[in-house]
Amino acid sequence: MLAVAGIETFYGPSQALFGVSFEVQEGEVVTLLGRNGMGKSTTVRSIMGLTPVRAGRIVFDGTEIHRLPSHAIARLGIGLVPEGRQIFPNLTVYENMVATAANRLKSAAPYTLDRVLAIFPRLADRLDHYGNQLSGGEQQMLAVVRALMTNPRLLILDEATEGLAPLIRREIWQGLTQLKANGHAILVIDKNLDALMQIADRHCIMQKGRVVWQGRTDELAADEAVKARYLGV
User: Within its chain, how far is the Cα of 137 from the centroid?
Assistant: First the structure.
């Protein structure tokens, strides 16, 4: 579904990504792992056209997207849950949900209001609350729901549960587990390795703007040296 092939990305004269390559298959959950500042968020920004690549290719569902503007990439079926959530604070929860709702790809089973509230039922009691009246965890749930309401084929989450209370984190992981069970493709960044390994099929570890390790969950679970070298604090 998504093929990132040898991309190089810069911030001004400073190079941030060096030949990053990985894939996400249909219905697969893939993680981007690594310590802070290793290029994970820049990789997501490159996929979404927010930080254009200078070299390499990004192909989504057979279409080259690395030269497209962000809105065109989103319309092809990639939904982003950005770091920092970026919900609309002066709109209600309901308005946030429906503001960008669409089924451009003509899904036979689209995400509707009822369907997303079944995944994150906590928001059902908050529909008339404004975005800035929600807790951080509720805002994160709303950011996920807002992305789902665009009916993307690939959902990308940048720092899925960072800074959230354990109960809220658990509810978000439960929601993502439901999405995986529905066959949804997901690319996720998070530091909660134990939770990620419960739902992810494959993992890509980044260090200093490069992918330094890729493998299945069982392979990562068995390789303590890799975890200690690249993920330990």
Answer: 16
Range 128-155 average pLDDT: 94
Q: What is the mean pLDDT of the chain?
A: 95
- CA gap 22, 39 in Å, rounded: 14
Write b or e for each residue in 66-105: b if 16 or more Cβ atoms lie within 10 A of its Cβ, otherwise e. bebebeebbebbbbbbbbebebbeeebbeebbeeebeeee
Asked if 165 contacts 138 with a C-beta cutoff of 8 angstroms, the reply is no
Q: What is the pLDDT of residue 233?
A: 56
Specify the length of the chain in residues.
233
Tokens 């970026």, located at residue:
86
The four Cα atoms 148, 150, 151, 155 give a dihedral, to 10 degrees, of -50
CATH homologous superfamily of 2-230? P-loop containing nucleotide triphosphate hydrolases (3.40.50.300)
pTM > 0.85: yes or no = yes
Q: What is the pLDDT of residues 29-50, one digit of tens each?
A: 999 999 999 999 999 999 999 9
| Domains in the chain: boundaries | 2-230
